[in-house]
Every structure is written in structure tokens, then in C-alpha cells.
């Protein structure tokens, strides 16, 4: 039986387990990945299976952890470094952006860095401003890095497996709010090709582009919109780099309307980049401005009431969609 | 002659070749043929040959931005090095890296680095690979006294000691981090004690005495290979400015004159003669051969061709995967008649 129901967390664990079984060069290194089993339980039990030489509990030295992974990758291992929270990426940005991402290029193609940086981000646990961010735009801005953000259980497995076959550094950003989400894992069948978006719901009136947890808010919004007679094409971007935008442009040229939805603070976000690309490539087909819907440009506050307000909701996406497609203004319209 | 007798002479030859190479790098710059002025000469630091000679084939290393001498010590081809410093296609990195990012997988050079301390954790990662594969290799980080004040060094030392990795940290203390003398950037200068505090075997050696450096390094490399990581500090003096444009106005001329008397190449030469391991004719011949070799490297670099423009899009990602799209292609896709509705 290759397809079964499981959680996002278990799918990632299964991917690590299967990958480590298939490739003895794969090691895990990070804080609490061994005895503790991972801060969110993703690596539970792996140290018992593969031992302390392959599942390495590191001291609290994030730059060192990533730097060691870079060196191990340069010399023949395939490390999976874990950064407990993407918020800590400020500590490791030199090793990630100046070392991992640039080595192949600077050294004229001689030395690649086939490593994976697993981390997680996003809101939902009242973890406050330093444990709740969505910093994927920082990674997207660095040539040489790959970046994927799984939204589904099946992608949580397959994107990580594929990341572990890539010759270059790949950052995998999971969402802390998705770990307990259930879904079907089919270990033989990925949701789509590496680097290709996936249409999660087909529609003709508006294209909604999203990824990670906001995909689910977008799908919920699409359900609301359907009740109002608006059919949304909901596209899961999944792989932010490499990203083949052909499917995005095809959809927008069909619907004439696009909304890009992200949890990240909007200014300088991935949504801004996607919106710019659509504006350039689909100008003649657009009926309306490309809408970006993102997190407010504020640090994430701890109060659950404020935290929920800081990021887009299905309601906001649906309201904006109705306004965009049917000119039906929401209650908060001026 | 026995191995014991020829080895010091070989080390002298390598030191002289480094000195000659660095002098030609200066000339390359003056001729306007270098790629930029970010050229950091290692003149005065040639005793590092004592460490590179203690490593064996298969061992790997990273260097800081002042790493020409280390690479020559590990067997680099000076012509390809000079071509890289000139930004030419024939260079080690096809003109993509230059002086500060030179590397060569074949010789175990995992990369020179222009971020102070940036390459240090990579040797710990290499050590992890060698430990896991039981390969018997050692990895060495070469860096300056500037990196002694970087946090990544101490994270690296701690992990190396914690996991008993086959690695060696080599600090070439030339007394200056750019324009700041080491006693203006550290409260306590006994750096090897810092290494020992983490559980490494630490040593500080006179940087005018390549044979002393070699003796200590040999023991430390052997220890590292057996799982006891080490630290060696070479006490040297940076003869010239930080980079080619820097005339070091921040240094006292007297200090500079005294510092340049601490010349590891001149010292090694004199000791070989005194020990009877070489006569003046032998040494003069070695010097002349080095000069001729490096003259040729300089000319090779000057004559070599620039990389083709299209190569700038190569090796951002691995061959066989999509590379970034040139801007003009994108603009054409947006603006050409056929692209509009």
C-alpha cells in the first residue's frame, strides 16, 4: 500500500527515514534533532535507527551548524541541517547566502554544496515576533539557493525527497501550523513535478496564487467564492525556486484576474515578486489590477487576537475576491 | 642527500616561490592587469609552508583572503593562479572567483573566503565527512588574527573538540586585521589558550622559523588524524598594506622596518647555509628558478583571454539544471510583438 493517511509531520519524518535508508551519505545535524526528537517531533526516533554519527545533536551554534553542513556537503556527505525556527536565519545568513549559495559559482563550478536546510516558519502558536515570521523572501533574493514550501502532506514528503536529490543547496520551509494536518501520502506519486506549481482547484473567474499554509486559507476562500458564483483557479506555487511561471501565466491569461496570497509581511515579499511577473507577462490580458494579499507590515504580536489579525484570513481573501470579480464591496470598504 | 636533508631545502624553495609569486601579483596590479585591487599579499607569512608541508595528499583546507601562499604550499600551479587573479578563463575558477575565492577540488582547496572566518566551519564539516567515512583525511583552516575575534571560529572549535574531528585550525597572526593592530582588537593576546579552553591542542610558533613551524604542525596534524583536533598560531608580520591600495599610514615606520626584519624567507636561507644543507650557488639557483617561473606565470596571466560573457550565467546552479535567465530574454518575452495579446 503506497497511499495512506498521515500527518504533515509524519510525512516529513517518513521522507527523512526513506532518504536515509536509500542514501548512507545523508546525515541530519541540528539542535535537538537526536535525543529530543526535534522541537516539533519531526526527527523522533531517527537517532535510534541511524545512530549519533548520522543524526547529530549540535550545540546551539546556528552559524556553525550550517557552516559544518556546507563543509560536509563539499566533501561528499549530503547533510540535512535543521534550523529550529526560520527566524534564526539572521544568524546563519552568511553561511547560507555567502557560502552555500555562492561556492559553486565563485569556484568556477568545481565545488557544489548539495545540502538541505530544513526549517519552519509562520504564525499560529502565539510564539511572538522572533518565532513566527515568514522570511522566504530573504532566501528567494539569493541566486544559488533553491527554495520550496510544502502545503500538503504529500508535498511535505516528496519535496523533501526531491530536495535531497538536488545538486545544490535547497531551503525547505515547513509551516508550524501544518504539522498536525492530516492528508494522504502516496510515496510513489508526487503532486507535481519539481519546480512546477500545482492547480489545487480549477476555476475560470480569478486566479489565486499561494503556498504553504495560506494555500488552505485560499482554498477555503475559493469555497466561499464558489457559493457566490465565482470560480477561482487556486494554484499552489510549492517550489519558489526553481519556479516555472508558465502555468501561472496561462491561468491568469484565462481568468484575467489574479490575487497573490502570502502570510509574509507584504512589502518586499514573494507575493510582490509574483505580482510583478504577472504584471509584466500578462498585461494585455488583465481585466483588473493584480492584487497582493499578505501579512500586515508589522512584527508578529503574541496575543492570539492580534496574531490572527496580522495575517490574511479566508474571509479577507474571499472579500477581496468578490470585490475584484463582482465589484461587491465588503463591509469594511470606505 | 637523505630525506631529512632535502626537505628543508624543498620548504625553502616553496617559500621563495611564494615570495616571488606575491611580488608578481603586485606587478600584475601595477600593470593594470589584475581583476581589481582586492589583492592581499602574504609576504612575511611564508613560514606557513611548515604547515602545508605537514599535510598529505587527500587532506583538504580552506583559506582566508590572504591565501596565495597556502595554496602554492599545497601544490598550486602559479600560472593558473595568476590567471584567476587576472580574471581570466584559464584561471582556477574560470575568472569567477579571483584572488579572494580561489579553489581547486583536485588539490583539496575547498575555497578561499572573503568573509572573515567564513570558511572555518567548512573544515569542521569536512572533518565530519572524514570521520564518518573513516577516510583518514585531515582538513585544515587557514585564517588570520582578524578571525580570532569572530564567533564562528569558536563555534567551529567547540564542535571539532566535541566530536573529536580530524581538523587543524591554523592562525597566521600577521598582527593586523586590515588597519587595526591585534592589541587594539583583543584584550588578551594568548590566543592558543583560547583554543586549549575548547579542548584543542594549542601551540604558538615563531613565524620566522619554518622548521619549527613544520615540527609543531607535523605533531598537530598527526594528532588531528587520530581524532584530537589542534590549533597552531604562526607569529608573523604583514610586510605590506592590507590590500594593494593600502600604504599602511596607520603603522609606525619604525615598527614596519623592524617587522620586515622578521623575514622567514631570509631566515630560512641563512639557516640552510649555516647548517651546510645548501651553498650559496644552490640557493641562488633556487631563487633564480622561482623568479623565472613566476615571470612566466605573470606573462601567462596577462596574455590569457577573458571569459566569454555568456559564461556569467553558468554554474549558478549545477550543470543540467536551469540557470538564471538573461535579462534581455525576459524583456523580449514581455515586449516583442508576438508576446502581446
TrEMBL record, chain A:
Coiled coil: none annotated. Residues 6-181 form the Transketolase-like pyrimidine-binding domain. InterPro entries: THDP-binding, Transketo_C/PFOR_II, Transketolase-like_Pyr-bd, Transketolase_C. One of its GO terms (molecular function) is oxidoreductase activity. The keyword Oxidoreductase applies. Its cofactor is thiamine diphosphate. It comes from the Bacteria. Keywords: Oxidoreductase, Thiamine pyrophosphate. SMART domains: Transket_pyr. This is Transketolase central region. It comes from Rhodobacter ferrooxidans.
UniProtKB/TrEMBL annotation, chain B:
It catalyses: N(6)-[(R)-lipoyl]-L-lysyl-[protein] + pyruvate + H(+) = N(6)-[(R)-S(8)-acetyldihydrolipoyl]-L-lysyl-[protein] + CO2. The lineage of its organism: Bacteria, Pseudomonadati, Pseudomonadota, Alphaproteobacteria, Rhodobacterales. The pyruvate dehydrogenase complex catalyzes the overall conversion of pyruvate to acetyl-CoA and CO(2). It contains multiple copies of three enzymatic components: pyruvate dehydrogenase (E1), dihydrolipoamide acetyltransferase (E2) and lipoamide dehydrogenase (E3). Signal peptide: none annotated. GO terms for molecular function: pyruvate dehydrogenase (acetyl-transferring) activity. Keywords: Oxidoreductase, Thiamine pyrophosphate. Residues 14-304 form the Dehydrogenase E1 component domain. One of its GO terms (biological process) is pyruvate decarboxylation to acetyl-CoA. Its cofactor is thiamine diphosphate. This is Dehydrogenase E1 component. SUPFAM superfamilies: Thiamin diphosphate-binding fold (THDP-binding).
